[in-house]
Amino acid sequence: MTKNFYITTPIYYPSAKPHMGHAYSSIIADFFARFKRIDGFDVNFLTGTDEHGLKIQRAAEKKGSDTLKFCDEISKTFRDLSKTLNLTNTDFIRTTEDRHKKSVQNLWKELENNDAIYLSKYSGWYSVSDEAFYSNDEIEELNGSKVAKSSKSPVEWMDEESYFFRLSKWEKKLLDYYEKNPDFISPKSRKNEVISFVKSGLKDLSVSRKSFSWGIPVPNNKEHVIYVWLDALTNYISALNYPDTNNQMYKDFWPASVHLIGKDILRFHAVYWPAFLLAAKLPLPKKVYGHGWILSGEEKMSKSKGNILDPIEIIDRYGLDPLRYYLIKEVSFGNDGNISQEKLEDCINSDLANNFGNLCQRVTAFAIKNCNGLIPKKIKFDKKDLEILDKFKSNLEIIRNKIDNQDINFYTDFIVKSLFETNKYFNDQEPWNKKDDILRLNTIIYTTLEIVRKISFMLYPIIPESSLNALKIFSIEEKEINFSSINNHNYLKEGDKINKIDILFKKIEKKND
Ligand code: MSP
Q1: Is residue 354 a part of any domain in this protein?
Q2: What CATH number corresponds to the domain at position 408?
């Protein structure tokens, strides 16, 4: 039986070019996609751009551009970034594509058929920046203007005819669902805020706009466009060819395994989206994970705050894999995190260049010199060797389970600890003093190489290019990487060639060094 895994990133607003926050969501999703793939899963990994709504229309107007042309240009920078970040997304969806419009209009009709939508009038606050409606108690006064308390984005008064979704009807059903599926909203720390929002009473949700036209028309009433969040959330099934629920993509991948999102858009994914799906009688995603923010100082990094960090600049300066490593390991997953140049340079120097890169170089050079450049024949593991090798075996299932619970910190800690222990093992075993005991010498070299191989497999989801460079030592190619083999102590074949490799990471010379 094939095991399927479907992971999504939020679809990004192409109102301005991508920043580090966007890169973060995408890199984390890629980590999970790559891990699942090397663990034998058939992976569908979706990302894309969210192109409708007033926010985009205004951004295009400001530039004096045609709205679609404006979206074409910026959406391309997100698509290009996917390549720059070495993402393995299997699709890239744009909400201006026909496949998506068809899907949204069908979902709308389904909702109408199920009496989930009615026409009325909306009077209330709206934030264009968040594309969200706010009640009176969710707004405050800041420097003389009204803003949303949660995001501090300006709100404007809206008064117009609108279709409404009967959100209030789903209050109890949603609460039941959260209770029966305790991992649906993750991490646990974010669950309560959603539950208390739902418990505080759900009001019906305005799901169409009449005062502008940049959106998907409501079927049978062209005066309205569909609310951008109802439009955007549907992308997750548009990409599986919804409304054709009998096609293989939909059957294989819906419900999604994880919607990975930032904590700022949890309400849309954990309340509105499941309610829309319930009303359309469609299955709900298995999990919504709201990660923390990349901060600039103490604030969320965002265009409107003018404090953005450009991922491309960091990549140009330090390389992609160091950035991926930093974001995956150094930002404690689930919490907010900062990017500091100093910490990034420390990571490169100590974890990547010293602990990993140097280990690879040392053991390869030693093996080439002392074993004719071949994986040693005749080995006999003793207690010390088995102790270090067995840690991978005994942790295999634990790691799988941790990954299924998005415990990235466990995964990276395990790697860092293993690297430390392997360096220590190599030093303590002093293979350079064992030249008279060939069996022992061979065994130490074999054991260390075997661990380098295991760790390189585990590093592949984090730093794919560097992992593949390291695996050149053994002429192992990408398609051969599989996680389940980390419990095999005899993966490397005796007599196979050991190759010298280029330096994996250059050390950064720090000013105060
Ligand atoms: N278009 C909506 C999402 C629709 S999903 C059906 C949207 N777009 S966004 O471009 O404003 O932001 C998308 C996501 O980017 C955020 O939810 C978050 O995952 C990520 N980030 C944006 N800024 C961020 C930080 N400063 N830090 C970390 N991630 C943040 O919302």
Answers
A1: yes
A2: 1.10.730.10
Tell whether 428 is covered by a domain: yes
Q: Is the CB of 261 under 6 A from ligand 1?
A: yes
Q: Number of folded domains in the chain?
A: 1
* CA 88 to ligand 1 center in whole angstroms: 19
pTM equals 0.96
Per-residue pLDDT tens listing for the chain (513 residues): 669 999 999 999 999 989 999 999 999 999 999 999 999 999 999 999 999 999 999 999 999 999 999 999 999 999 999 999 999 999 999 999 999 999 999 999 999 999 999 999 999 999 999 999 999 999 999 999 999 999 999 999 999 999 999 999 999 999 999 999 999 999 998 999 999 999 999 999 999 999 999 999 999 999 999 999 999 999 999 999 999 999 999 999 999 999 999 999 999 999 999 999 999 999 999 999 999 999 877 666 565 666 667 899 889 989 999 999 999 999 999 999 988 888 899 999 999 999 999 999 999 999 999 999 999 988 999 999 999 999 999 999 999 999 999 999 999 999 999 999 999 999 999 999 999 999 999 999 999 999 999 999 999 999 999 999 999 999 999 999 999 999 999 999 999 999 999 999 999 987 655
CA distances from 357 to 38, 361, 366, 407, 425 (A): 22, 6, 14, 25, 16
Strand order, beta sheet including 185-186: 91-94, 41-49, 3-12, 258-262, 288-291, 185-186
Query: 47 CA distance to ligand 1 centroid (A)?
Result: 12
Domain ranges, residue 455: 340-487
Q: Among 249, 204, 246, which residue's Cα sits nearest to residue 227?
A: 204
361 lines ligand 1 (CB under 6 A): no
Q: Ligand 1, atom 9: nearest CA belongs to which residue?
A: 12
